Amino acid sequence: MSPWLAAARAVGAEIAARHADDVDVRARFPGEALAALKDRKLLGILVPESAGGPGAGIADVVSVCHELGQHCASTAMIYAMHQIQTACIVQHAGQDPWLRTFLKRLAEDQLLLASATSEAGVGGDVRSSICALTERRGRFSLVKQAPVISYGEESDAILVTARRTPQSPASDQVIVVVPRAGVEFQPQETWNTLGMRGTCSKGHRLTVEGEMAQVIPVPYADVSSQTMLPVSHLVWSALWLGIASDALGRARAFVRAEVKTSSGESPPGGGRLAGAAIELQTMKSNLITCLRAYEAAIGSADRLSAISFAVAMNNLKLASSQSVVKIVGEAMLICGLAGYRIDSRFSVGRHLRDAHSAAVMVNNDRIIANNATLALALRDDRELLA
Amino acid sequence: MSSPLKVRIRSVLKSAGCLQNGLEVIGDDADLHAAGLTSHATVSLMLALEEAFDIEFPDRLLRRRTFSSIDAIAEALGEIGVRDEAT
């Protein structure tokens, strides 16, 4: 086990799990768990050694997300979203001195990064922007109506997308890194949802200022397709797998307890438990296959921007988001009333509500519509092991 | 003066309606993505090119860079045997 996974397990089991119900009930930021993740230096693990970090890989981050997902899904989601932003900077900062220095600070001070990619008025399409950077003497300013910014007010910096210039078409976007001091938040919408309540994904009117050097020197289209999209789908799928594993773990404990008290007769939920394990295995295999595909493609813009790669990564998100709901639902049926209750140790109510966020956050219907276009360009795999 | 192949590529771009802004002002080496070519429009453009030139793009060319400029498209078409001549 990597030292990072061991640290995540300690934070998850000892801190995140203890506060998970309170975070959920009060829809509050999981401050204790995030402080512990900072203490254990888990926020900066992706920062390469050349920028003063430990240089962990995406597999390490995926493992941490999977671990945290088993204890508190909101904590896991915040960690996952932070690492998506970090990966974008690590992969695309190039030799930009401002961004290199920022990465160094991220590792040293364990900065928490948030994201403002969605915008009111573009119909949920994060690859279109209305707001634009206005440049003046090497500095920029920008105002964005952001319908959801997860944990924005708790973050140390935020990554914001916008059109490159006020004259640019909606799809010609850049992404800019803005430390907290350069951002003014005007909260506009509250966050009172079915699940993932601790992510505090409120709506804001953002007013942002900074130096042009803070702009990632690659078009957002490339950052999005080569890093943000695949990494998002990997880390989310990992934490959803964590939610599903924990729910199924509760169901297994329930069935075991029944076996012990029923003098050896096989309990009614046993078959369902075995069936749900198939779904969990498929979910895990899919995640690991896609993780290996991403690791093999990393560093090659051509492989990362291939249509077949984009479709595979979209499929991972679509499949995992459906599997997690299915598995948690099965776990509830296995535990019966004990699973349906919210005050029993077999309760999977929070898991079920958190799991339903998966299909909604970047709506599956939108991803299927994207895949429908991309599928026109796909070629069949003719060779199994190619 | 643009080559006959690039003139044909322009006419495909025009009839596929991939760009909102005027195609006339876009140079052969200009970044089509920066000019508003979305990833969806890229797929439509690919299909329109396959139809117009009666070709099929191999897997290795199905990436963003292939469709990043008129020059890049001409190069890719050349690679799969489309000759630069008037029809």
Structural features:
heterodimer; A: 386 residues; alpha+beta; Butyryl-Coa Dehydrogenase, subunit A, domain 1; Butyryl-CoA Dehydrogenase, subunit A, domain 2; Butyryl-CoA Dehydrogenase, subunit A, domain 3; 3 domains; four-stranded antiparallel sheet; 54% helix; 13% strand; globular; B: mainly alpha; Non-ribosomal Peptide Synthetase Peptidyl Carrier Protein, Chain A
Explain what the structure shows.
The complex is a heterodimer of chains A (386) and B (87). Chain A has 386 residues and is an alpha+beta fold. Chain A has three domains: 3-112, Acyl-CoA dehydrogenase/oxidase, N-terminal domain (Butyryl-Coa Dehydrogenase, subunit A, domain 1, Orthogonal Bundle); 114-214, Butyryl-CoA Dehydrogenase, subunit A, domain 2 (Beta Barrel); 220-375, Up-down Bundle (Butyryl-CoA Dehydrogenase, subunit A, domain 3), CATH 1.20.140.10. Helix content of chain A is 54%, strand content 13%. In chain A, strands 2-3-7-6 form a four-stranded antiparallel sheet, with no helix packed on it. In chain A, a hairpin with a 2-residue loop joins strand 2 (134-136) and strand 3 (139-150). In chain A, helix 4 runs antiparallel to helix 6, helix 6 (220-261) runs antiparallel to helix 7 (270-297) and helix 7 runs antiparallel to helix 9. The longest helix of chain A has 42 residues, at 220-261. With 87 residues, chain B is mainly α. Chain B has one domain (4-18, 25-79): Orthogonal Bundle (Non-ribosomal Peptide Synthetase Peptidyl Carrier Protein, Chain A), CATH 1.10.1200.10. The radius of gyration of chain B is 12 Å and the shape is globular. Chain B starts with a helix and ends in an 8-residue tail after the last helix. Classes of the chains: A alpha+beta (386), B mainly alpha (87). Chains A and B meet through helix 6 and helix 13 of A and helix 2 of B.
